[in-house]
Design brief:
Two copies of one chain form a homodimer.
Chain A lengths: L5 H11 L6 H12 L3 H17 L1 E2 L6 E2 L5 H4 L4 E8 L2 H9 L5 E5 L17 H10 L4 E4 L5 H14 L5 E4 L15 H9 L5
Parallel strand pairs in A: 3-4, 3-5, 5-6
Antiparallel strand pairs in A: 1-2
Helix pairs in contact in A: 1-2
Chain lengths: 199, 199
Amino acid sequence: MEYFPAPLEKLVEQFAKLPGIGGKSAQRLAFHVLGLSDQDAKAFADAILDAKQSVTCCPVCRNLTAGGLCSICASPKRDAATICVVADARDVAAMERAREYGGSYHVLHGVISPMNHVGPDDLEIKSLVERVSKSGVQEVIMATNPDTEGEATAMYIARLLKPFQVRVTRLAYGIPVGGHLEFADDATLMRALEGRREL
Amino acid sequence: MEYFPAPLEKLVEQFAKLPGIGGKSAQRLAFHVLGLSDQDAKAFADAILDAKQSVTCCPVCRNLTAGGLCSICASPKRDAATICVVADARDVAAMERAREYGGSYHVLHGVISPMNHVGPDDLEIKSLVERVSKSGVQEVIMATNPDTEGEATAMYIARLLKPFQVRVTRLAYGIPVGGHLEFADDATLMRALEGRREL
């Protein structure tokens, strides 16, 4: 495309680099920005720079924070003896939305994935082991996704934590609430049967 | 959501304001930005500010330009005696992609739409009439979209231009190239029949 003025083309290109945004969408977004007030455009640009500059990782749990300890690690109400290990900061948000969990987290920032050249050393696994070895952690809940990579990562970490005498658990598999047996895949049904409980 | 640090929340909100971007997509885009290098994040923010600041309207045709005349109005190769009237700068890009048209444009920046409180005075219609009245324009091609509002806008402008002795034409309606008769709607088929030509 060479039909738009250069600064507009550049903005379209920037939007087109974002995940899930194609050429047409990028154009629509760029035109939307042109239609913003100067103030709103500045707020947008500032939000990008500000998020990039001031969001860092919590020194304890590696969750995202605006500086210092994250709000969960800093809270005296949370149980530091239980650590829920997740792959991503978004998973922390998902767990928090459920309003059920009162412990702390550890964010791995990915899963072990040889296909994508991500090994254990690329993840926050060492910091987890250190954390478990030092403080009085009683339970580590592996809450990586129930897919091949998430599973492998959970198994790997569970093995690493064996020497520390902590309880290592895994989130339950089963039929999702509101789901239908009819539409459940074989693997899920098998796990649901395996994990059946007394009523 | 209050599970992300404030600067990240703000960025998610900014993305969620964009057209067609829902909450989940906004989150994904914001996390993508966090993953960018400082340099790339700055380039993105700069592109927003730069496009907003330096893109203006061509004083002749109201197409978007990075300052001064737009590239089409400035080109000596383009026929200034023919004006193609479009609703939006994106329509100029669409026409240019067809590589068929060698005249100039006039961008209305919208169509008459009483439902959305857009009247003739909110559009670049006055500037078009002025342009036709002054210079030696021979033909005005109405290329607004073939929907109710585009149609009404084309008719309105055609009537305004009556006194100036210029030829006012409308883009042809018909079956799109590669289309199927079977799937064409009644109105399109009717127009295609009306507009039939000798072979």
